[in-house]
Amino acid sequence: MIIVILSWIYYFFLCGFIGIGLKKILTTVLKRDWEFQGIDYLITGIVGITVYASFASIITKVGMLVHLVLLLVAAFSGLLCKREIKEWLPKAKKLMFSWEGFFYLCFILLIAFFTSRGKFHTDTNIYHAQNIRLYEEYGIIKGMANLQLHYGYNSLYLAFAAIMSLSWLLPWSLHTTTGFIEVILCIYAFHHLRTFKERNCHLEDAGCVVILFYALVNVTGSISPATDYPTMFFSIYMISVWMRAMERKSHYSVYALLAVFSVFLGVLKLSAIAMAAVVIYPAFFLVKEKKWREIGVYLGLGILILTPYLIRNVILSGWLIYPLEVIDLFQVDWKVPLEYLLVDSHQIKVWGRCLYDVNLIDLQVKEWLPIWWEGQERYDQMLMGANVLGLFLAFLNLIYKTAKKIEVRIELIVLYIGMIASALVWFFMAPFIRYGLAFLLTLPLISMASWYDYKKKGLHSIITGSVVVCMFFCFSPYVDNYVTDDGVFIKQNLFEPYYVIPKDYDVGGTESMMIKGNVIYYNAPEHGEGEINSYHYFPNTAYKFMLERSTLVSEDIKDGFEP
Question: In 10 A of CB 265, how many CB atoms?
């Protein structure tokens, strides 16, 4: 726990200084200023560091040199923005030595407990940890997706996890970034909700409540650098800040920055890219006012975020966007064969639909939907019920406000479009609940907040009030299940010896074979537990059959793998 907390303190200053510097650059280039909160600087820093590490990985390994350059940039940013930092120091000091600060300290200790121990996410053992090792050792290797198809998924979150692992300095590789993101977002949520009664509009409050809900659901996974968690956390953060901008009637430039941030969500996990639909709102004003220079800057930022993702895709798999076969532009020696890509793509879909057989990929929705529904836990089914009620409540709100000539915010409608588009992409691509949880939690709570914020009378009050009560009961089993799970986790792990140094990555049964003079490892489940593609052996694959259908291009592993 001690190492976990020390790493978070380091991340805080590193991300904060980078974020302050990036905000200053944006303000200078666009000749606009934004009212950033502390969390906004930290998230901006995370985005900047992630993009930097992703570009660096294309050229070299993400090790000491890459990290020291980042450290120098952060130090320069701190010196350049020392006036802004000095303005924050009295506020930070006042907060630290208050009862609110004491509460945050206790909360940090709690999340550090979860981050230091527990069970790694299944996909972390299958490919996240090994991908982080790839960043640390080489940066990138051509055709790695041939060794194991999962390497083609290429979430840039793992670049952030790798540059923050400090494996070049410490005798282990830190995996505390998920807990860090959880801590800063939850503290932001708590800090905002403390003044709930002072506001007439509670849309941002709804986003903050969802952050806390999502943390409750996934706190036992804080140890794991899994790509689902930051994608969902940042999606909720984006929705929350969008609603903050609505409440404050902010300039459309705020929404333009959030539209750029939606591209970042897509490079964390492809299934989240549909949130980019919100670009239609700021784009309308930018085009209407002929702000061509600003349009160029925002487009440039989006392209800057997207570029390392696309380059890495091609190097890892030979495909521009893996595993989508519709964009087939490159014919390179290391390209993953189409038939393997299709099997992988179909597996993602049928597993999400609870079918578990790629031969059933062509089943119509009406055929697989009942099977999928029966495969969900009862509390997940109740959550889906809350979403149906949430959409109904949103429709009733819209009808009532229109009839009573109450202002209907176009920003909220656009946000609904983005969330519904994301939910539809989730449902048809891979409807694992965990892949779409940010949107499944947020949509009903925003509807409730919107309902709460205007006066209701007569029959409309009775109907909508009944819907809200039903939604409350739909949420209850979800909360109850995870409160119980988290309590059991604490009880079972209380005496684990991780109060100083956090638990290391899992080690599974591993064997090896020699290919062109290089030792390549593979998981041997008969000698260990399940599909553990161990961080501690590199290069490694969780599936021997994938290794057997691949080979090295040459005797130098840097030249990569080919089918």
Answer: 25
The three-state secondary structure class of 290 is coil
pLDDT tens column, 298-312: 999 999 999 999 999
Q: Determine how many CB atoms are found less than 10 A away from the CB of residue 99.
A: 7
What pTM was estimated for this model as a whole? 0.95
For 123-160, the pLDDT digits (tens) are 999 999 999 999 999 999 999 999 999 999 999 999 99
What pLDDT is attached to residue 526? 72
What pairs with residue 73 in β-bridges? none
Question: Residues 267, 376: one domain?
Answer: no
Does residue 341 lie in a domain region?
A: no
Quick one: 467 and 531 in the same domain?
no
Q: What span, in angstroms and rounded, lies between the C-alpha atoms of 320 and 268? A: 15
DSSP 527: G
Total domains in the chain come to 3
Instruction: Inform me whether the pLDDT recorded for 73 exceeds 80.
Output: yes
- The helix (H) or strand (E) run that includes residue 511 is strand 510-515
Beta strands in 420-508, from DSSP E residues, in sequence order: none
The reply to whether 486 and 521 lie within a common domain is no
Statement to judge: residues 412 and 282 lie in one domain = no
Q: pLDDT tens digits for 214-234?
A: 999 999 999 999 999 999 999
Alpha helix segments (H runs only) across 60-199: 64-80, 82-96, 99-115, 122-123, 129-137, 144-147, 157-163, 177-193
551-552/561-562 β-pairing:
antiparallel
Q: What is the CA radius of gyration of the chain?
A: 24
